[in-house]
């Protein structure tokens, strides 16, 4: 190895040693989830998120960046050398003597195309550092770097993805390799054999299937919509959990359903935020606008290019335009990139259970993907006269057939390009949408843009409303935003924190965030305590739902006196999310923690129960109370008020007759008993014991000489267990004793 090359290598190794992924098994803090984006942090593209949860290290997606795609992305003098791998491992990166015996690949590319895997390990020990890799779906910005990471960087561990993703991934990776190597001429890129070897490491999972990666780490896939096979992953280690969404869509389309997940209540939700500030308009109006623009362009003799990715949005728009061409009986040819139509049909037949219900129900009678008007594209058609519509890949105009057609048709103002989805910054598609009139394709090609440019969002990503819906659906405790632009993330972040009151983060690439989680301790509950709670809960429910029952007295059988129940509207009757149960925690060595009834637990361990009791004095004006009752009696006899009032006043009149010498406290106690019997006596038992009203532990009595309270007034006492009941009774007592005669 020459001196200059060795000097460059030493410099690179020093840079690698200077930083490393700090999330290793030895340093992981207890009850903390740590997250580091290697890609898609305040950016769209190159999705790669490192997560440490419960001492387990996981890589979520392994994508490439569309905007930094190949050597041409950087000027020659800024192309860095990038260390790929060491075929014979260095004993230590600081041992310079080992460098001479090692074979190291160096080549000049834009290192921003792939994630910086040196952050995980300085020495390339990726298999030891990572417990698994999870791929959410087959788009290249989520899986494009996978063969590079496994076959050229040396990762040998498990990779998890759904069955459709495993089937489609190698096809798109091979197309990507052909464009990069055979058309652009790049060297030291992954080969076809590398892709095949990479796929052998993949373990395919079914929806809702719980996979135990090891004894502690479990994962489960949920339907994400977006594209065929896309999945959100629920990850759990012990009591800690997170959900990684990848790309998802909360709105069903013409061939896929909407994303859905259980109420898993994860400690962290890592969600895409591509359209963080967008709320889309009506899908029907967008479809109508799309068809009108295509029809108008071809009617004027122009060509329409629609850049799409091979699977997903392409099928959505093909179904739409096929139906329209059939209905309008149009003869203008429609083409699709060669070979992709056949591949799409094959995959949709194979994985029909991933489509929506309409596709499933009609698939036997008619395959929606057998298009009558859409034919395979051939490069010889590019100079054909007359209008045409071409669905061309890829979707961001960064390479392939779509870029070739764009360069050919861009100068003619009769032609049109319709961008149906998001374009990553740096791609030709993003420059077109920005309104640039001269676009530098590469070092030798500049295109003058005169054609019509239309942007109609048929993107299969969740908009701001959909993101908020998912947070609400899974009840996340923390949210981390990735796969979005920085300015949009900031807006959505503040909205999430305001609306849900939970922490939200938007880390940049290479930035570590630590999220502390609460530890849930499972406990058992005694059957007797649960039974007591259910009885009290039913009593409380009856008490709070008095408005749902008839207001007639129990002894009145007259039809005229029965009122119809006043039922609440269904929207106002909601289940309780939390229920308070009072008990005693009992912890025995080697046994589960148990919540028991306090008396039961104390009896078992031989301890006397310590009771906390409260007592208050409710003072009143005895003379005013008596005058108020007498006034009500006179009013009833002179005006002939309602039967209900007659019953109440008659009862009070009997009390007046019963007191010759008249004891104001005893009179008030009887009034309170009558009021309580009317308000709660129908479902809670009231009794008299030693001259006191007793309702469970609540006692209402008159003071005696032994009490510290002054004479006059009523004493209300209760145990702490009946705090809620006592509050209700105190309100009835207060209303009864505060009656005043009206001044004439």
UniProtKB/TrEMBL annotation:
One of its GO terms (biological process) is snRNA processing. It comes from the Eukaryota. Keywords: Cytoplasm, Hydrolase, Metal-binding, Nucleus, Zinc. SMART domains: Beta-Casp (SM01027), Lactamase_B (SM00849). The keyword Metal-binding applies. Residues 45-302 form the Metallo-beta-lactamase domain. One of its GO terms (molecular function) is hydrolase activity. Its cofactor is Zn(2+). Residues 314-432 form the Beta-Casp domain. One of its GO terms (cellular component) is cytoplasm. InterPro entries: Beta_Casp, INTS11-like_MBL-fold, MBL, Metallo-B-lactamas, RibonucZ/Hydroxyglut_hydro, RMMBL. Pfam families: Beta-Casp, Lactamase_B_6, RMMBL. Residues 536-573 are annotated as: Disordered. It is found in: Cytoplasm; Nucleus. Belongs to the metallo-beta-lactamase superfamily. RNA-metabolizing metallo-beta-lactamase-like family. INTS11 subfamily. This is Integrator complex subunit 11.
């Amino acid at each position: 190895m020459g001196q200059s090359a060795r000097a460059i290598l030493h410099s690179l190794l020093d840079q690698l040693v200077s930083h490393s992924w700090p999330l290793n098994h030895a340093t992981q803090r207890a009850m903390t989830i740590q997250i580091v984006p290697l890609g898609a942090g305040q950016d769209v593209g190159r999705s790669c998120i490192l997560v440490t949860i419960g001492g387990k290290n996981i890589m979520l997606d392994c994508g490439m960046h569309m905007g930094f795609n190949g050597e041409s992305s950087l000027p020659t003098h800024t192309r860095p050398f990038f260390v790929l791998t060491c075929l014979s491992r260095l004993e230590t990166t600081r041992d310079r003597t080992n460098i001479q015996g090692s074979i190291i690949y160096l080549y000049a590319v834009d290192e921003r195309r792939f994630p910086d895997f040196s952050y995980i390990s300085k020495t390339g020990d990726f298999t030891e550092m990572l417990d698994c890799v999870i791929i959410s779906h087959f788009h290249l910005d989520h899986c494009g770097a996978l063969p590079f990471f496994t076959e050229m960087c040396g990762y040998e561990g498990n990779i998890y993805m759904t069955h459709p993703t495993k089937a489609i991934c190698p096809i798109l990776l091979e197309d990507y390799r052909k464009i990069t190597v055979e058309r652009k001429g790049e060297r030291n890129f992954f080969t076809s054999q590398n892709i095949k070897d990479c796929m052998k490491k993949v373990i395919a999972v079914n929806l809702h299937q719980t996979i135990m990666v090891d004894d502690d780490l479990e994962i489960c896939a949920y339907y994400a919509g977006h594209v065929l096979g896309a999945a959100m992953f629920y990850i759990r280690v012990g009591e800690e959990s997170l959900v990684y969404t990848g790309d998802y869509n909360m709105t069903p389309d013409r061939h896929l359903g909407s994303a859905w997940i259980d109420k898993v209540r994860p400690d962290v939700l890592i969600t895409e935020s591509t359209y963080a500030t967008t709320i889309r308009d009506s899908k029907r109006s967008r479809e109508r606008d799309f068809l009108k623009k295509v029809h108008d362009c071809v009617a004027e003799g122009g060509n329409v290019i629609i850049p799409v990715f091979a699977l997903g949005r392409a099928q959505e728009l093909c179904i739409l335009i096929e139906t329209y061409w059939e209905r309008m009986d149009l003869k203008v040819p429609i083409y699709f990139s060669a070979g992709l139509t056949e591949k799409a049909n094959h995959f949709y037949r194979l994985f029909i259970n991933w489509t929506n219900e309409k596709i499933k129900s009609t698939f036997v009678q008619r395959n929606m993907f057998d298009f009558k008007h859409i034919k395979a594209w051939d490069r010889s058609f590019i100079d054909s006269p007359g209008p045409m519509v071409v669905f061309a890949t890829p979707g961001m105009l960064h390479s392939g057939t779509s870029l070739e057609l764009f360069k050919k048709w861009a100068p003619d103002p009769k032609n049109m390009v319709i961008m149906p989805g998001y374009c990553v910054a740096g791609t030709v598609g993003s420059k077109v949408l920005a309104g640039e009139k001269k676009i530098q394709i590469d070092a030798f090609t500049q295109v003058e843009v005169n054609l019509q440019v239309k942007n109609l969002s048929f993107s299969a990503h969740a908009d701001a409303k959909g993101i908020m819906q998912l947070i609400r659906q899974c009840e996340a405790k923390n949210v981390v935003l990735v796969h979005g632009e920085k300015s949009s993330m900031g807006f959505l972040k503040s909205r999430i924190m305001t609306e849900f009151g939970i922490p939200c983060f938007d880390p940049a690439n290479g930035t570590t965030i630590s999220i502390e989680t609460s530890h849930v301790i499972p406990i058992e509950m005694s059957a007797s305590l649960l039974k007591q709670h259910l009885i009290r809960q039913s009593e409380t429910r009856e008490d709070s739902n008095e408005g749902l029952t008839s207001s007639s007295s129990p002894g009145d059988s007259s039809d005229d006196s029965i009122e119809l129940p006043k039922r609440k509207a269904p929207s106002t009757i909601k289940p309780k999310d939390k229920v308070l149960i009072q008990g005693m925690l009992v912890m025995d060595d080697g046994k589960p923690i148990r919540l028991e009834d306090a008396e039961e637990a104390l009896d078992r361990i031989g301890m006397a129960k310590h009771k906390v009791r409260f007592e208050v004095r409710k003072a009143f004006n005895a003379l005013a109370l008596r005058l108020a009752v007498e006034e009500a009696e006179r009013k009833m006899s002179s005006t002939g008020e309602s039967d209900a009032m007659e019953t109440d006043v008659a009862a009070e009149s009997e009390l007046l007759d019963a007191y010759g010498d008249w004891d104001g406290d005893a009179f008030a106690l009887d009034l309170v008993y009558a009021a309580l019997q009317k308000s709660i006596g129908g479902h809670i038992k009231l009794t008299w014991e030693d001259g006191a009203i007793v309702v469970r532990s609540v006692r209402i009595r008159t003071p005696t000489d032994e009490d510290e309270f002054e004479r006059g007034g009523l004493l209300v006492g209760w145990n702490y267990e009946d705090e809620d009941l006592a509050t209700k009774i105190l309100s009835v007592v207060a209303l009864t004793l505060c009656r005043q005669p009206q001044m004439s």
